[in-house]
Amino acid sequence: MIDLYTWATPNGRKISIALEELGLPYEVHPVNINEGEQRSAEFTAISPNQKIPAILDRDTGISLMESGAILLYLGQKTGSLLPTEPEEYWETVQWLMWQKGGFGPTLGLALHYLKFHRGKSEYSEARYEKETHRLYGVLDSQLEGKEYIAAGQYTIADIASWPWVARHEFQTVDLHDYPNVLTWYLRIAERPAVQAGWSVPVPDAVPLPRQ
Ligand SMILES: N[C@@H](CCC(=O)N[C@@H](CS)C(=O)NCC(=O)O)C(=O)O
Q1: 89: helix, coil or strand?
Q2: Which of 98, 107, 156, 188 lies at a CB distance of 3.0 to 4.6 Å from 71, suitable for a disulfide?
Q3: CB distance 92 to ligand 1 below 6 Å
């Protein structure tokens, strides 16, 4: 049994989607980050950085914060969604790190400046809009002629990026400008585990791009 500490955000949903895909039993503990629950002593003991998501694996006693570390842990624990052949493994890790170090943080800042706090900083709006579109271009090139981001298969690299792309409208992105990303996004949106994982911790429909 895995305890999942989460909230309805892209980083939180990465882990509920992975747990659903892997069919692992888990118990959800919502951490309302709008109410400051991430700063409680109980949660800080599991997630010293005071951010969701975090897990506690009751089978091993291991607790983890950081969505990338958790995805690697779950992949390694189950032998699924993380290829073991060196070339495929490292390609998967490379695109996971790309999401964690670039795509996710940039899209997160784009949400702040372009959606939630427009008008606060012209410089930041321009910077994050430009970098967001550049990164979508990188992903679109990577997906040219491919069904999935890395290793020729559905992996934790897809699971890491997909929930962020789900918020494309908030990031001023029209997915029709990135046709390979659009096809990939819709392919993954159809997966029952993705729909179930998106609905954690609150029921919600997977966002579909405007026609
Ligand atoms: N690098 C972390 C980022 C986690 C993160 O930014 N979590 C946000 C929600 S998506 C959060 O908990 N925010 C609460 C806060 O900043 O106080 C990861 O990938 O897990």
Answers
A1: helix
A2: 156
A3: no
Task: Return the residue matching tokens 């579109």.
Answer: 133
Burial class (CB in 10 A: 0-12, 13-18, 19+), 153: middle
- Please, what are the domains in the chain? 2-78 (3.40.30.10), 86-197 (1.20.1050.10)
pLDDT tens digit at each of 211 positions of the chain: 999 999 999 999 999 999 999 999 999 999 999 999 999 999 999 999 999 999 999 999 999 999 999 999 999 999 999 999 999 999 999 999 999 999 999 999 999 999 999 999 999 999 999 999 999 999 999 999 999 999 999 999 999 999 999 999 999 999 999 999 999 999 999 999 999 999 999 999 999 998 8
Q: Is the pTM of this model over 0.85?
A: yes
Distance 12 CA to ligand 1 centre (A): 8
Instruction: Say yes or no: CB of residue 33 within 6 Å of ligand 1.
Output: yes
Best mutation site among 5, 51, 65, 198 for ligand 1, i.e. most ligand atoms within 8 A of its Cβ? Answer: 51
Answer whether 209's CB lies under 8 Å from 175's CB. Answer: yes
